Amino acid sequence: MPTAKLRQRATSPLTASGAAGAVIHWPAGTCTKMALDPQIQDILESVRRAARPAFWQMTPDAARHAYRRAAPVLEIAPASLGRIDDFSIRTRTGSSLAVRLYVPAHTSNHDALVVYFHGGGFTVGDLDTHDRVCRMLAAGTPCRVLAVDYRLAPEHRFPAAADDAWEALFWAHGNARRLGADPHRIAVAGDSAGGTLAAVCAIRARDAGLALRLQVLIYPGTAGYQDSASHQRLAEGYLLDAPTIQWFFGQYLRDEHDRRDWRFAPLDAEPAPDLGDVAPACILVAGYDPLHDEGVAYAERLRAAGVRVELRDYEGMVHGFFNFGGAVEVARTAHRDVLKALAAALGLPGERLNGEP
């Protein structure tokens, strides 16, 4: 299993938007002092009492089953849509990928499209584990959402997930009319490992001349080495812990060299990718997430490259909170924030959550 390597990085101030809407200045390489949200505290206490095995103590298949079973527990109710279509696409490499198209109730033949990549450390997660998030995005904007069931590790190691994500986006752009979507109004989005894939797709889209309207990166992994202050301070006790992160990467990466590849670590790859002219970004980070600092640092790198970035720091939250909308009020606030960002980028009404008029 690859081991973490400690390296020092320079820090500089970054303007960000906090969960309460206040503008804060946050130096990359530090993490929040705000108390845990009480609703998150309750969830962590429930997890401690349950005392279930961690993913790193399971086989990949067992971890997938556990994740699939737990995914709906804290989620929002499923939003009503016009229809949902499951089908497979054929990539340029000849492989087949399962996808799910979410179509809102009020639609046209030229809707905007969001291509969504689920989280799960490149090892767990599927179309069903993130079904309610995709429903919310489709109903709340409204737009069409294409969720991608990319190949998982360890059966398919790096760069399989990154390649699948790009092939799916490329296919979606070329077949947008068939999907009832406008090829000129496409965004990418993803959470955790899916956020990594979305960031990588934004770079590849720039290189291919495919103009994306927005990249939504929800607590993305961007660094090859887990050596930031937030990784060190939040190594255990906040849902995503250090052994689990290394277990995920041990499943996905082929060797230590992969940690320096920009398709895995767009923040600190060697050589670093050019980030100029990639799509504008909406980046969400959580104060009690080991990935906090690398999300902030990636926002900082994008801004330094001249990219328009909206960074939102939900200081009392943990990794995965975006999927806790049924139990955590701030998660629903984050949903509204993402809907608003997508609506602005894609020219949509936006910001309507399930059950709202």
Note poorly predicted spans. 1-31
Shape: globular
- Total helical segments: 9
DSSP, total strands? 10
Q: How does this model look, in words?
A:
- The chain is of the alpha/beta class.
- It is globular and about 50 Å long.
- Residues 1-31 have low confidence and may be disordered.
- A ten-stranded mixed β-sheet has the order 2-1-10-9-8-7-5-6-4-3, sandwiched between helices.
- The termini are far apart.
- It is built from nine helices and ten strands.
- Helix 4 packs across helix 5.
- The protein is 31% helix and 20% strand.
- The longest helix is centred in the last third of the chain and has 18 residues, at 329-346.
- It has helices at 38-50, 60-70, 131-140, 160-174, 193-208, 229-233, 242-252, 292-304, 329-346; strands at 15-18, 23-25, 83-90, 96-103, 111-117, 144-149, 181-191, 214-218, 281-288, 309-318.
